[in-house]
Design goal:
globular; about 210 residues; mainly alpha; 6 helices
Length: about 210
């Protein structure tokens, strides 16, 4: 039996407390800022957390995957609520692409060097690295399969697909809200590149894990 089948059915109390605390604190912060975009994303996070818990009861994700997913959630919520110096955003840079929307001065817009990924893309890479590992463990559990390159490739494609779904959610935010921090076409392309890199690295790493 694969090792991850023997994981505890319930997430650790420490992990549960960690997620509840940052969701409450950062949701309140977003509300006080009048940040409607991230209030919507907080609701999306609740759906994401509920779905992950539902899957965990069936699959029993490893503690590594659960903590990675929880950390991704924290980094995501911080990205939309923590203010930064506006000089480090694309709005104040000559290198801003003409098709990109002006971005708010929050952590998600942080870019120290023009034409390099911003905080947003780094979190995309980390997030879909985590999601791909979860997909890999789910495939192994549901198929009762051993580690294999084929399974890793399928998990990577699933992670990339989830990344594309994330872009659909961001597009919905653009259509329904007067102002968002999503960005334009170039930002979306960077997001997709970051998603692919994260998913590919996770697929490679999954083959080296002991479980």
């Amino acid at each position: 039996m694969p090792a991850h089948h023997r994981q505890s059915k319930n997430p650790s109390p420490t992990l549960t407390t960690f997620v509840i605390l940052y969701m409450l604190i950062l949701s309140v912060l977003a509300f006080r800022q009048g940040n409607t975009e991230f209030l919507m994303y907080a609701l999306v996070m609740v759906v994401f957390i509920t779905t992950t818990l539902f899957l965990h009861l069936r699959i029993r994700f490893s503690p590594t995957v659960l903590w990675l997913l929880a950390t991704w959630g924290l980094l995501h919520m911080l990205g939309g609520t923590i203010p930064i110096n506006p000089q480090f955003t694309d709005t104040f840079r000559a290198a801003t692409n003409s098709d990109d929307q002006p971005t708010a001065a929050v952590l998600y817009s942080l870019r120290y060097f023009p034409n390099l990924p911003r905080y947003d893309q780094l979190i995309h890479a980390f997030g879909f690295f985590s999601a791909t590992l979860a997909c890999y463990e789910a495939l192994r559990a549901l198929l009762n399969a051993r580690k294999s390159v084929s399974l890793a490739i399928i998990a990577a494609l699933m992670g990339i697909g989830l990344g594309a779904l994330n872009e659909v959610i961001e597009f919905f935010a653009v259509l329904t809200m007067p102002q968002t921090n999503v960005g334009g076409y170039t930002n979306t392309a960077w997001d997709l590149v970051a998603n692919t890199i994260g998913a590919s690295l996770a697929a490679a790493w999954s083959l080296t894990r002991r479980s």
